[in-house]
Structures are given as structure tokens and as C-alpha cells.
Specification:
The protein is α/β, with parallel strands linked by helices and about 150 residues long. Helices cover about 30% and strands about 30% of the residues. The protein is built from four helices and eight strands; from the N terminus they run ββββααβαββαβ. Strands 1-2-3-4 form a four-stranded antiparallel beta sheet, with no helix packed on it. It has a four-stranded parallel beta sheet with strand order 6-5-7-8, with helices on one face. Strand 2 and strand 3 form a beta hairpin. Helix 2 crosses helix 3.
Length: about 150
């Protein structure tokens, strides 16, 4: 039996993506892997910049088309790379990530767009957290969710 590193409860195999086995906690639905990933390749630095520039430019263009005066919250922003890309593109942006001390505090105020990029699959209680996120949006604001796990959603 595989157990969750957080809850210690029972988990099941979820999928294999790019050679990495992912498991899903039966109680919380949280996805995780037992494999140690080389984070120097995954988070921060030149590798992330090179890998994400094309995608980030497309995301920024979508946001500008939706709202040329967007005020964006990047929820689950990690080290803030996309937040900086938004700011460099002239978009007012802030980030939140409970696992990075630079973005540990939820920004105050309301936003016209909230992004969750490769985050939704990691939320412990997605519906509850989406409601909290919705409270950060202005009326008729945009919630932008992106995940590479879409073909694995049950």
C-alpha cells in the first residue's frame, strides 16, 4: 500500500506522466509522486525561463485580450516567475503561494483575473479552495485554470 506523505492515508496509482508515477490520496484527492524530481531542472533558473517563455507569452496575450487593464493574482505562483513576466508585460500582478516565503501572504484586494497554472491538481480541497479564490475576484472576473493533467481527470 502507498500512503500519502501528508495524511498517511491510503493512496492509489493515478497516472504516469513523462516517466513519473503519480499517486492520488483517496481521502483528499491530492496528487503526489514518490520519486525525487530534479528541482533544479523544474523550478527557477534558466531552464524554467526557456521552457515557459512561449507558454507565458501566450498566456499574457490571452489575458490582455480578455482585459487590457487586468489586475492578476497568480495563485500557487511558486517563486513568482509568471508574476514577474506579467509585470514585465505591463500588467498589474501579484502572487500567492503557501510554500514560498516571498508569496506566503494572500494579497489584499480584488482581482480581475486569477490564474492557477499547474496548481489545481495539487489542491487538497479543490472546491473549497476555488470558493476562496472566487472571493478574490471582482464580479464577472476571470478564473483561468491550466493543468497538464487534463487527460487524466477522472
Amino acid at each position: 500500500m502507498i500512503s500519502s506523505p501528508i495524511t498517511k492515508n491510503e493512496c492509489c496509482f493515478y497516472c504516469n506522466k513523462d516517466g513519473v508515477d503519480y499517486y492520488k490520496c483517496i481521502d483528499t484527492g491530492t496528487l503526489f509522486t514518490l520519486q525525487t524530481l530534479d528541482q533544479s531542472e523544474k523550478v527557477g533558473g534558466e531552464a524554467e525561463e526557456e521552457r515557459n517563455n512561449t507558454h507565458n507569452n501566450a498566456r499574457i496575450n490571452r489575458i490582455k485580450k480578455i482585459d487590457s487593464n487586468a489586475v492578476v493574482l497568480d495563485f500557487g505562483c511558486g517563486h513568482g516567475y509568471f508574476v514577474n513576466c506579467l509585470r514585465n508585460a505591463g500588467i498589474s500582478a501579484d502572487g500567492y503561494d503557501p510554500f514560498d516565503e516571498s508569496f506566503f501572504k494572500m494579497p489584499s484586494g480584488l482581482f480581475t483575473v486569477v490564474t492557477l497554472i499547474e496548481v489545481i491538481e495539487h489542491l487538497q480541497s479543490p472546491f473549497k479552495e476555488i470558493q476562496l479564490i472566487a472571493d478574490k475576484l471582482i464580479n464577472e472576473g476571470i478564473l483561468y485554470i491550466e493543468t497538464s493533467f487534463q487527460k487524466h481527470i477522472l
